[in-house]
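Researcher: We're teaching a course module on how sequence relates to structure. For the next exercise, students receive a sequence and then see the predicted structure as C-alpha cells, so they can try to spot secondary structure elements on their own. Here is the exercise chain.
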Amino acid sequence: MRSVLSCLLAAFVLLCALPLRADTVAEILAANSALVEKASRQTIAPVIDALVASNDPVAAAVLAAWADKALGIRKSDRAIFLITDQDGGFALRDLTGAAAGLAAKSDIIVLKPNAGVRGMIATALVQFTLSDPDPAKRKAALDSVAKDPKPEALVPLRASIPGEGDPSLMAQKQRLEQLLTLRFDADSAARVAAINGFGADIGLDLRAALNPLLATTRLATATQPDASLNIARTLQLDRDLTQAEAYEMLVAAGLAPARLTLEAQRAALVANLADGVVGGVALADLNTQAARDRAYTAMEVAGTVPPAATDDEVTAALAAHKFYDVYVEADPAVTAAALVALGSIGTKVAGMQAADLALDALSLASIYFLAAIGLAITFGVMGVINMAHGEFITIGAYTGYVVQLFVPDYTISILIAVPAAFAVTFGAGVAMERLVIRHLYKRPLETLLATFGISIALQQILKNVFGTQARPLTSPAWLDGAWVLNDVVSISYIRIAIFVLALIFLTFFLWLMKRTRLGLEVRAVTQNPTMAASMGINPDRINMLTFGIGSGIAGIAGVAIGLFAKVTSELGTDYIVQSFMTVVVGGVGNIWGTLAGAMMIGGLQKVIEFLNPSNTLAAQTYMILFIILFIQFRPRGIIALRGRAAGD
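Model: And here is the predicted structure for the students to work with:
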C-alpha cells in the first residue's frame, strides 16, 4: 500500500512539473473577437498580454498585422484572417500564413486600432524583437524599452541576455535590465541590489529611474497613518506648507467643508434675517466677526445653510489633522537605497558641474587670451591705445572666409588661412603705424581718438565689401562635436583647438621675446627707449614691427574666433572691451599678466553666468564692477611691469 501511494505521489509531482498548454493565437483571438473589434487602451491589455504569453510562433506576425491594419474579421463566421488588398477585395490568409481564398470588402471588418492600442501592440512586439537575429532590430527594441520602460519588458529582456552575441548590445541589455529591476522587480532585495550595483555611476538614465522611486503624494489624516504607508516626512504648518494649502488638502480629501468667504457669509446672514435675529444672534450684536461666525454656525446646525468653515473652524480642523509626504513607492528599503544613491550622485554631479564650469572658464579664457595677446604687445610695448584692434580680429576672420571661397577643403583652407590672416593684418598694422600712429606717440588721448576713427572706417569698408549678412567660416569635420567625458562634462573640439592655439602662441611669444634678437630689442625698448637707441637699436623700427606683430596675432585670433562666432563687420567689437580688460587687469605689457587676466576674466564671467544664467547683461555689468574695484586695489594689474609701459 505504501509503495502504491509513493508511485501515485511521484506521478502527481511529475504531472505538476509538466508545462501547461497555453492557448494558441487563433483561440485567443476567437474567444475575444468582440474586444478585438472594438479595441481600446482600457479593455485590450489582457488580450495583448495573452497573445504575448502564448508562445505561439505566429504571435509576432499577427500583432504586427493588427498594428498595420492588415487583420480582419469575416462577418459570416467571425473568423479572423490576415488580409491584403487584391482586385477590389481582400486576399485572405489564415493566421499561420496559408492562403484562405478571397473575400469582398463588404464581407470583412478591417481591424483599425487607434493610436493608443497601436502603442500597446508596439510595446508587446518589442519583447519579440529583443532576440531577433537582426542586431539593428534588437537595438531598436532596446531603445524602445529604454524610452518607455514597462514592467512587462523585464522578463523577456532577462531571457534575451544569455543568447546575446553582440558585446555592445549585451552591455546595453545588462544595464537596462538593472534599471528595470530597480523599478519593477517583485523582490525588494533584488531592487536594492540593483540600485547599489551602479556604484559611482551618474548616468542620466539612472537618475531618471531613481527619481520616480522618491516621488511623493501628500496625505492629511486625523488619525495615525496606515502602517503600510511609506512615510517620507511629517509636514509642519507654516514651514513646509501654508495654512491655506493645508486646508485645501483637507477640503480635497473630503475631511473638511469648503472655507466660508466673507461675501457668502454676509449673503447668508442677510437672507436668513428675521425679526432682527439671525442664527440666534441679534442684529445689533453682529458687529464683530466672532458673532457673525457664531450665527452662521448655528444656521449650519439647523440645516438652514450649507456647511462651510469659518475661521475658527478652519483653525480647529488644522489642529485636528496631521499632514505627511508619502512615497508612491511602498517599499521603505527601496526608497532608502534610492535616497542614498541619489545623494551620492548629487555630490558627484556637483563636482562634475564644477569641473564643467572650470573647462568653460578655461575655454573662454583661451579666447580672451588670443584676442588680447596682440593688444598686450602694442599697448604694453608702445603705450598705444589701439581701438581698431577689434577690426584686425574681424579682418582675420574675413581672410579665413575668403580663403575658403577658393579652397573648398576646410582642413587645408584653415591651414592656409592662419598664415594668410597673419600676413594681411600684419601689413594693415604696419601701414596704420607708419601712416598714423608714429605721429602720435606720447599723445595717448589723440591716439585713442585716431584709432577709434580708423575702427569706424574699417567697419564701414568691411560692410561695403562683404555686406551686412553674416559670412560662414566653416570648421573642418574633425572639429565637429564635443569631447564628452560623461553626462555632465563635455567641451567642444573647437574650444579645445582654440586652447591649443593659445598655448602655441604663448610658447611662440615666449620664444620670440626670450630667444631672438627682435625680442631682445623689444624688451630693451620697453624698458628704456633712450638707452636702447644709444646702443644702436632703432626704436622706430621696433615700434613698427611690434605693432605689425600684435596686429598679425589679432588676425589669427579672428580666424579662431570665426570658427564658432558669426563673422560680421561687428565681430571685433564683441571682444575689444574684454581684450582691454584682460590687458589692464593682468598687467600692461606682460604676457604672463595677460594670461592671468584672461583666466580671471574668463573664470569670473562664467561664475557670474552660472549664478545668474538668465541675464547675460547683468553678468557683464557685475564683471566690470568687479574689475573697477580690483583696479582700485591693484592699479598696475596682477603682474606689474617696470619701464615705460608701467607709467615711467
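Model: If you want an answer key for the exercise: Residues 25-129 form one domain. Residues 332-382 form the longest helix (51 residues).
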